[in-house]
Each structure stands twice: as structure tokens, then as C-alpha cells.
Design a protein that fits this description.
488 residues; nine-stranded mixed β-sheet; 32 strands; Immunoglobulin-like; globular; 2 helices; 4 domains; mainly beta
Length: 488
């Protein structure tokens, strides 16, 4: 009893000194969490401030945050960091006990002197929680201090494509979504827009697809499911810049008509910080009677998270092309790592689902090539030198996996003429088979290096690939070495 009286006395003194009300807030809470990354799919941003409903926190070294907020309130979640654009998740509602997680892009300001307030999105044609069927017509407008640079609209997942709407340098957009291509049940619309100073806004609108179902058969089974993981020792920035410039410079490998979606693989080669890149490509056989495919991901093989719906498309860009026979989902989530990852693909149509296929892959650790001998600016190098290099691996290659290494060595003379171009397999040295000219300057490099592991069965295969050097940024991490041969 004396302890309770003493506690009451302390509380009364605090109240008298501060004038503050003493109460216990019993309002329900939910949790909002997520990863803040340098653009979509870039490395995590540490130290970004995350604010909403009067609460705030900061991201850790992986760009992750977790924060409790009041439940059942509508609010904007705002992400800020010095010299970077502001990112807004508009009109968020967290229900009691809910754990709501996002993947949020954030970019450096184009011009630090311009406004850094994220825009907002106004939408007409659909409301939160609405039941939708048939063709869903949506109109929206991006409103902010700066002009809109680009917007994207997706339905039913985090997939990069296909997109329901996409445009550049306009503040207004519209889309007609054929909801019959999607399974009945809970879904959502996701709109992402950037202004020209890299301020971003994302708006999620939950909806319920409710189309009438007649009599018919569900789709058949998938014939195969393939997984390809790509790890790079540097971050090459899988962001959504305009593709046409890259197509013009690098050719058909980046031609949007070469891939399934009109946008193709969009790569921004101007963003290369000292980091690494990892993405996983999921590819499967299409079946004619399917309307689409639901894609799921798991890190334990038991609990799968829905990450996208890829609707069925049969159009081709040119008459002489064969119809597209594969489905494709590119996963560039910041949750990916050098760990076993499972994917499940389920075909569906209006009458039900087909049998799923599940496959796992463990990506290889990223690495960079480090040149050794002949050393940079070495002199009196023998006329038939042996070139050696090593791999700076961020982690390790597992000893129990059959990993093949391929290294493309190039030797140039002083005029940049290629004297040697050869592939070395499973070795980190190369002996020159002929003599060089005496008293001559040469340069050498490992232009492209890759390690890969493949395993599979009758229903597909998984290939884990790690690359050092790539299109637009070839060579070792420290650049080519120059040397001078011995004088005779």
C-alpha cells in the first residue's frame, strides 16, 4: 500500500510541475513497415526519416523501417532525406493489428534548388473497397509543385509489366482495366508518379473483383517453370528511365519489342554507386486457355506472398514474329538476397485455377574482378607474360555447388587495337601463346566475368548467374592495367 501511495504522490508532483494531463491512450494500433530504396530495385537507403500520423522513425542500413501508428485513420506516409526527393504514400489506412508493408522508391533530387515536396494523385472512377467488374475506367491527375515526369499504373501486383497505363511529361492519365483477366477477390490499383525533381507519390486503391462466372473448365497445367537469378558486383540501377535512348545505343538486346511487355527491360546505366544488384527472372510456359498467371514468392517454401498477376497477352509487334509463348515476371525486391527463394506460378481463368508449379533458386554472391599481374604501369614485362587476376567476392561461393567460371580477357596495344580476346574457363590466369613486341605499351583487362550454377529437371531449371562487368560498364572494378614490355 505504501508503494502505491508513493507512486500516486510522484504522479501528482509531475502533474503539478508540468501541467500535463496524465492518461493512458487505449486507441488501437497497427504496424506499417517497408523498404526504402534508391529507385525501384536499387540499394536500401539508410537514415531516411519516415513520418505519419505524428509518429516517425528512420530506416536501418538495409533501408528497412517498422512503425506503429493509430489504426483506422487515413494519413499520408512521407519519406525524406537530405538531398533526395520526398516520397509520399497517399491515403494510407492501417487496420487494428494489421502489418502493412511497402517497397518505396526514393531518388536524389535533380536540382536541390527546386521544391522537394511530393505531389498528390486525384483519382476518379473508382473508390477504396469498391466491387469492380468488366471494364474499369479510371482517370487520374498528378498535382504538385513541379511538372510530372512519368507515371505508371498497375493492377493486381508489384509487377513491372504489363502496365495498365504509362506516360511521360503529362500530369493526367487514364486507363481501362479489363478485370475479367484477373481472378475474383481482393485486388488493388497501384499508381506511381515522379515529378521532374524526383519527388514521388504512390497511391494504392484496394478493390474487390467480382465478375460473373459461367460454366467452363479451368486452365491446364504449366509445362515448365524456369528461374534465372542475376547478381552484379555493382549497382546498375534497374529503374524506369526512358528506354529508347538505350535501344538506339545498344541495339536489339534492349529492344522493347524483343520482350513481352511494351516497356521491356528498362535499365538506367547512369546510376552506378559502389554497391551490387540482384534480381530474379521468373519464366514459364503459357497455356492458351489461361487468362493470366498469379505469381507468389516465399523464403521458406511454405508461406507464399502474392507479388503479381501477369495477364495473358497474345499480341505481337510485327506480323512475321511468332506469338509469344512464355510468361515473364521480373522480381527486383529489396527483400531478395543470397538465400534460397521459392516461386510459385498458378494459371487461372474465369472458371478456376490450374495446378501450380513451384521452383527454388539460391542466387550466387556478387563479386568484382581484381587484376593482379602484370601490375599497372609495370615495366620490363616479359614478351610472353602470364596474366593473373582474382575475384573480390562479397560473401562466398558455396563449395557444394558446381560453379563454372568464364572470364573474357582482352589485351590492347597503344592504338586500342585488340591483340588478344579469349575466354578462360575455371582458371584465373592466362598464358600468352605468342611474343609481344619489345619496348611497347599494352593494356589488359577482364572485360566480362561470370560465374554460374545450373540445376533442373523435366519441369524446368534454375540458373544462378553472377557477373562482374556488364554492358555500358565493362571491365574490372579498378579498371584496365597498362604495362611496358622489356627492351631488347
Amino acid at each position: 500500500m505504501r508503494k502505491l501511495l508513493a507512486l500516486a504522490l510522484v504522479l501528482l508532483i509531475v502533474f503539478a510541475l508540468t501541467g500535463c494531463d496524465i492518461f493512458f491512450d487505449t486507441r488501437p494500433k497497427g504496424t506499417i513497415a517497408g523498404y526504402v530504396t534508391d529507385g525501384r530495385g536499387g540499394p536500401g537507403i539508410e537514415g531516411a526519416t519516415v513520418k505519419g500520423l505524428g509518429f516517425d522513425t528512420t530506416t536501418d542500413e538495409e533501408g528497412y523501417f517498422e512503425m506503429e501508428v493509430w489504426a483506422n485513420y487515413t494519413f499520408d506516409l512521407v519519406i525524406e532525406k537530405e538531398d533526395r526527393g520526398q516520397t509520399r504514400v497517399q491515403d494510407v489506412i492501417v487496420e487494428k493489428g494489421e502489418f502493412l508493408e511497402y517497397e518505396l522508391p526514393n531518388r536524389k533530387n535533380f536540382n536541390p534548388e527546386w521544391p522537394d515536396a511530393a505531389p498528390k494523385i486525384e483519382v476518379e472512377g473508382v473508390s477504396r473497397g469498391e466491387e469492380v467488374s468488366g471494364d474499369l475506367e479510371i482517370e487520374f491527375e498528378v498535382e504538385g509543385d513541379r511538372p510530372t515526369y512519368v507515371y505508371y499504373l498497375n493492377f493486381g501486383g508489384l509487377q513491372r509489366g504489363p502496365r495498365e497505363a504509362f506516360d511521360i511529361d503529362v500530369d493526367e492519365g487514364s486507363a481501362v482495366i479489363d478485370t475479367t483477366k484477373h481472378p475474383n477477390g481482393d485486388s488493388y490499383i497501384r499508381i506511381l508518379a515522379y515529378d521532374d525533381n524526383e519527388n514521388a507519390v504512390m497511391k494504392f486503391i484496394p478493390v474487390v473483383v467480382d465478375n460473373e462466372v459461367g460454366d467452363g473448365d479451368p486452365p491446364g497445367d504449366l509445362a515448365w517453370l524456369d528461374l534465372y537469378s542475376m547478381t552484379m558486383g555493382r549497382n546498375v540501377g534497374y529503374f524506369s528511365d526512358q528506354l529508347e535512348i538505350l535501344v538506339e545505343e545498344y541495339g536489339k538486346d534492349l529492344d522493347p519489342d524483343y520482350y513481352e511487355t511494351p516497356e521491356g527491360h528498362m535499365i538506367d546505366l547512369t546510376q552506378i554507386p559502389d554497391d551490387s544488384t540482384l534480381f530474379i527472372e521468373v519464366m514459364w510456359s503459357r497455356i492458351p486457355e489461361a487468362d493470366g498467371y498469379s505469381v507468389y514468392r516465399s523464403f521458406d517454401g511454405e508461406t507464399f506472398e502474392h507479388i503479381g498477376n501477369i495477364t495473358q497477352y497474345t499480341d505481337v509487334s510485327e506480323e512475321d514474329q511468332d506469338p509469344i509463348i512464355v510468361g515473364l515476371y521480373n522480381d527486383f525486391s529489396p527483400q531478395l538476397g543470397i538465400k534460397e527463394t521459392y516461386y510459385k506460378v498458378v494459371p487461372y481463368n474465369a472458371f478456376g485455377e490450374g495446378e501450380p508449379l513451384v521452383r527454388a533458386i539460391t542466387p550466387l554472391a556478387p563479386y568484382n574482378v581484381v587484376l593482379e599481374t602484370p601490375e599497372h604501369e609495370a615495366t620490363d614485362v616479359e614478351l610472353m607474360p602470364t596474366f593473373t587476376w582474382d575475384l573480390d567476392i562479397k560473401g562466398e561461393f558455396e563449395e557444394d555447388r558446381d560453379i563454372i567460371e568464364l572470364h573474357l580477357i582482352r589485351l590492347f596495344d597503344a592504338t586500342d587495337w585488340i591483340v588478344v580476346e579469349d575466354v578462360v574457363q575455371d582458371e584465373r590466369e592466362y598464358s600468352l601463346p605468342f611474343e609481344l613486341d619489345p619496348n611497347t605499351v599494352y593494356s589488359w583487362d577482364i572485360a566480362i566475368s561470370q560465374a554460374y550454377h545450373t540445376e533442373g529437371d523435366a519441369e524446368g531449371y534454375s540458373q544462378a548467374l553472377s557477373i562482374s562487368g556488364h554492358i555500358g560498364q565493362p571491365g574490372s572494378i579498378i579498371g584496365e592495367f597498362m604495362f611496358t614490355t622489356v627492351t631488347e
